[in-house]
Amino acid sequence: MLRAAASAAAAGALLSGCDPHRDEDRGPARATGPSPSPVGREPHRPAHAARPPTRVPGLPVQIENGPREAHAVALTFHGRGDPKLATALLGEAERAGARVTVLVVGDWLDAQPQMARRILDGGHELGNHTLHHRDICALPAADAYAEITGCADRLRRLTGTIGSWFRPSQTRRATDLVTQLARKAGYPHVLSYDVDSLDANDPGAPAVRRTVLEAVRPGSVVSLHLGHAGTVAALPPILDGLRRRGLRAVTTTELVT
Fold first, then answer.
1. Where is this chain compositionally biased, Basic and acidic residues type (predicted)?
2. Distance between CA atoms of 138 and 135, rounded to whole angstroms?
């Protein structure tokens, strides 16, 4: 169940979906300062190091899912939005023993630099979702490369690495050009997904849960978003549904290696 403080945060949440028609995807997130835990004082967490880019010989450059014989899935989050909702969502994952992959937007890290360490300290994984969340496949090569490297630079400054994965913005799959630019920037693979939760449209927690659990399979990579109260509320029943099927939520690197 969504914690009371997370519900209160919902009214002022910045929506963070990847729909190219949403204004929230084009403007930088507004800085609100460090945010406390939505359920009181944060427990002590050990420091976790950021992973370098993941390289898996034998896997395609563009990855949509992990091995189907796995007893796990990867829940991946497009990283932008109200940091209180992001913190609430991470807390829900951690209470269930789940680990997730967050693909952050670079200008969100400019506004919320503390979130990089919060994600890592929860045992989660960080990746790159471009600098400004523009329609990267429609950009000239120089501009697209700047979007990739701009976010990579911020991740390196905050964590010491450029992140484990690159996911293109406003598209499910990268073009050949964007894939080449990502590799030039240091990412051996581009991370796509095979399950779209459609949570960026704010259909409500029951619809998000139903969409994910009806489509998910062993080895799935699921696309979700930070910054949406319905996603925070949907996460516990999603994790419970996965558990009932014998599936664990792990980072993408854990899923494919």
1. 19-28
2. 6
